[in-house]
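The instructor's notes for this session suggest beginning with a concrete chain rather than abstract definitions. Hand out the sequence below and ask the class to guess, before any prediction is shown, which regions might be ordered.
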Amino acid sequence: MPGEHPPVYVDFLNGPDIAELAMTNDEILAAIEGQLAAQGRGNTVVDARMHHMPGLANGHFNVLRGTIKEAMNVSGVKVVGDFVDNYKENLPSELATLLLMDPTNGKPRAILDASHITDMRTGAVTAIGAKYLARQDSKVLGHIGARGSSYWNVRLLDHLFDFEEIRVHSRRKESRDAFGVKLSRDLGKKVIVTEDWESCLKGADIMVEASRLSAPEPLFRTEWIKPGAFVCPYGTMSALELSITSVMDKMLMDDWGQARSGKLGAMRQHVDAGLLSEATLHAELGQVVAGLKPGRESPGETILLWHRGLSISDIALGHAMLEKARRTGIGQRLRWF
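After discussion, reveal the predicted structure:
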């Protein structure tokens, strides 16, 4: 009948579907590197994340929104719950849903379990950051944190650098020991589980801080950073000393707009104190990936990348998963209307 809408179908990828896709390291990295380059060329729209605090538990929701114009032509919204005590219920600390939509007419395209997407894309941004900003001969990784994204940090970094030494630490002994065992098994190499922050981080070539603190606490000491190191902090609560900016030759973010929003983040206090600003920021990572600004220019440069996580990273990886799912027949199609 005239005026009736044609049927609209939505692809649905649940957790087991995402696992069945078995995205390779290179597929994940390619999706995120392409997104960063598109962002650097100005072909994306990124809204600052919003925080929703239910006040019922030790956690909050993040709402991320964005659009990738070139090639993918897709918009998306991700809602991720970040609840520190979920381990007590044998649940991941981060549980997320991603909705992909057509940016020309608003039609929904897909719904994806984005919990692992969050982990994968976070690790990929860390690894791509290191690809452009760390010394290419980096051989020692020090990593704080054992949550989901930590696994992908270490896995994807090692894929690019093939470390001679990997050190990990987290607050709870049982989680850090299990993390070390899993990494050693999956990477096929020894992983050192340390008892404290200093023995994990001091003197490492690449230093990643993905801690799960309940309140800001300066556990990451500036004096442990050697010249030429690449430092990547992204804990929700700051673990850094204010002095960290004084030893950096270059400081970068995934998106400067993210520094202006919310009260959380590894370098929130540095922004509030004026130590990290538009004047002191060297570049956004996408500008480096797109070749518009230089990354590492000498072995002695000490460089920091603070990434807070972007909607467009979720969207790019979700889009890559959707394309692979369609090629391989994985997932379900749901009638929308």
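Then share the key points. The chain has a mean pLDDT of 94. Residues 115-133 form the longest helix (19 residues).
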